[in-house]
Amino acid sequence: MDLAYIWFFIVGILFVGYFVLDGFDFGVGMSLPFLGKDDIGRRQIINTIGPVWDLNETWVIVAGACLFAAFPEWYATLFSGFYLALLLILLALIVRGVSFEYRHQRDSLRWKKGFDTLIVVGSAVPAFLWGVAVANIVQGVPLDVDHEFTGSLLTLLNPYGLLGGLTTLLLFFTHGVYFVALKTDGQVRRDARTLAAKSGIVTVLVAAIFLAWTVQNAVAANAPAVALVMACAGAAAVLLIASLVANRIDREGWAFGFGAATVAFAVLTLWLALFPNVMPSSTDPAGTLTIENASSTDYTLTIMTWAAVIFLPLVLLYQGWTYWVFRKRVTRSRIEQAAAVVH
Predict the structure, then answer these.
(1) SS3 track for 79-113
(2) Is the pLDDT confidence value at 1 over 60?
(3) Is 28 exposed, middle or buried (0-12, 13-18, 19+ CB in 10 A)?
(4) Cis upstream peptide for 72 (omega within 30°)
């Protein structure tokens, strides 16, 4: 297989990793108003992702860098056309990161609640806008013959794009609540299981509509990988229901695992629906970017392939080791003891 096609799927896998890992980060952040009954509870929730959130975020940097190197035409069109949406995502991520670091700098509850609000906003905005952006990439956007985006931010806010944003928002929220239940104890853990059961039902309904719409679009466009699109969409639906069942019987690890697999297969559904294009034009077929006309030279892709073979396993090992080190639950008693020592 041509290296350009291989790198299309490598970039896809990197985005799968990003959405799975940073997805539950977003969900944990969005769950604060629902699960954090007091400051100790909110600290308990935030501490579940304290050691890993910044590591999870680096996946989008790696994915973006690989996109830039492997498909410069795609990168240029995407980042110029979706500039405002991506800028809002970047600003939200900055606000979120700053809030994690600054909320504990003062004892004032007002100070902490202010940064908690920013964590919620900084988690919800990317969770929604990533879905809007990816849905529009798959559906197609107005591109001219020079592969330049001719729409605006409002162009992206179409029914399919908004439904995609709502789907990722709900998927990440439920995925994050599963993680809170897995990593905490006491009231927060019980509340997280109850909340996941409720949000999961809404997520199933919204995700089912979005995935069915995606499959319908792939069939209408006679996409080459339509059979795989249908298979991945079906797998995502089954796994999402399985996560709800696991949560119902208090198998938190299975619920989180099924939730992660749901996000992965949902992203793969969209990626396969896009193949062999990377950015379809909704106005002029001549403006469509494909894997072949958007990729770098074979020499560049060859160097990238050797770099990926050497360094990607090391990154995965390091991240796996990090999760293993911080695998224990964040208990309320431990946070209360730490608070007592400080005061």
Answers:
(1) HHHCHHHHHHHHHHHHHHHHHHHHCCCCCCHHHHH
(2) no
(3) buried
(4) no
pLDDT digits 0-9 by tens, 65-102: 999 999 999 999 998 889 999 999 999 999 999 999 88
Gap between the Cα atoms of 154 and 108, Å rounded: 40
Distance of alpha carbon 189 from alpha carbon 274, whole angstroms: 39
Distance CA 246, CA 70 (A): 40
CB atoms closer than 10 angstroms to residue 285: 11
Distance CA 8, CA 271 (A): 9
Extract the tokens encoding 228. 């795989």
pLDDT tens digits, one per residue of 226-265: 999 999 999 999 999 999 999 999 999 999 999 999 999 9
Q: Judge residue 68's burial from the number of C-beta atoms within 10 Å of its C-beta, 0-12 exposed, 13-18 middle, 19 or more buried.
A: middle
The candidate with the shortest Cα–Cα distance to 203, out of 231, 184, 177, is 177
pTM above 0.90, yes or no: yes
For the segment(s) 3-280+312-342, the CATH number from 1.25.40, 1.10.1220, 1.10.10, 1.20.1630 is 1.20.1630
